[in-house]
Description:
Layout: H1 5-48, H2 57-68, H3 78-105, H4 116-127, H5 130-138
Helix pairs in contact: 1-3, 3-4, 3-5
Amino acid sequence: EEMEAGEVGFRKRVWPRLRGFIAGYFAGVGLVLAGHPFDTIKVRLQTEGITGRFNGPLDCVVQTVRKEGFFGLYKGVTPPLVMTGFVNATLFGLTGLAIHHLRKSRNVPDSDPTPILLVSEAALYTGFVIPILVAPMEG
Length: 139
């Protein structure tokens, strides 16, 4: 089976750079889906104060699910879902691109594993970009 020239170009040049962004997006989505219920409960407990309607976190979970259903734990999930997916896609993707360019500039053969110092250097470069994206969300 012969591959088209465009397909070879995609597999060799585009896909290795694109997959980091895709993996990062889904990692961000997974992070939010796993953590958002905890944030929901934390915020509800904080807003109710000590004399609120809940007798602790577990009671808050039980009351929320009884009154609003399971998806009540995910109220307000859309903004963090979109932004965390975007931030993680950027983080993973830029780190992958930095690793690629550092390997190329240091003449590391494709068959060799990536040295940990090179991965650390790539993460350092990427780390300068992420606060620019995250700071507006956290403020």
